[in-house]
Amino acid sequence: MISVMGTASLLAVTSPQTQSAPIAPAGQFETVRFSDSPEADMLHRAYRILATGDHDYKGHRVKAMNQVKKAADMLGLDLSGDDKDHQKQILSDDKLREARDLLTHVLDNSDVKGQKKISKHVQSAIDEIDTALSIR
Fold first, then answer.
1. Where are the domains of the chain?
2. 38-63 burial, b if ≥16 CB within 10 A, otherwise e?
3. How far is 75 from 88, CA to CA, in rounded Å?
4. Which residue from 47, 64, 76, 130 has the highest number of Cβ atoms inside 10 Å of its Cβ?
C-alpha cells in the first residue's frame, strides 16, 4: 500500500454530448428593438402603475407619468391602455415604489444608458416619484 500525505487529485470529465450553438456569420446578428425588450415592458408597467395611483402627491405622480411618456415616445413605445384601477394611498405608495424599481432597471439598460435625453426623462420620473412619496 502506497500512501502519499498532503496531496489530492481531481479528475475532470467532459461529457462528449455537449453541443455548441451555431455561430452566426459576422454582420448577421439579430437586432432586438427596444420595444421588444424586457426593459420596454418594465417602462410600460411603471407607467401603468403610476396611472392607477389614487393619491395626487401634489402633482408629482402625474409629472412622473409625463416623464415616462416622453422617454417612451423617444423609444417608439405606445403606452396607451386602461388607467381606471385607482387604489387607496397606502397601496398607491407601494405601487409607486414598484414603479420606481422598474424605472431604475430601465435606466440601467444599455439602450437607455447611452441616450442622455431618454435617461434624463427616466431619471426625472424617478425623482418625481421620490418627491411624491415624501408627501403625506
1. 34-133
2. ebbebbbebbbbbbbbebebeebbbb
3. 32
4. 64
d(CA 73, CA 65): 12
Residue-wise pLDDT tens digits, 40-70: 889 999 999 898 877 789 999 999 999 999 9
Element (H, E) at 103: helix 89-108
Burial of 105 (0-12, 13-18, 19+ CB in 10 A): middle
Q: pTM score, two decimals?
A: 0.55
Provide DSSP, 37-82.
SHHHHHHHHHHHHHHT----GGGHHHHHHHHHHHHHHHHT----S-
The whole-angstrom separation of Cα 130 and Cα 108 is 18
CA distance 33 to 25: 20
pLDDT band for position 103 (cuts 50, 70, 90) = very high
Separation CA 41–CA 78 (nearest Å): 11
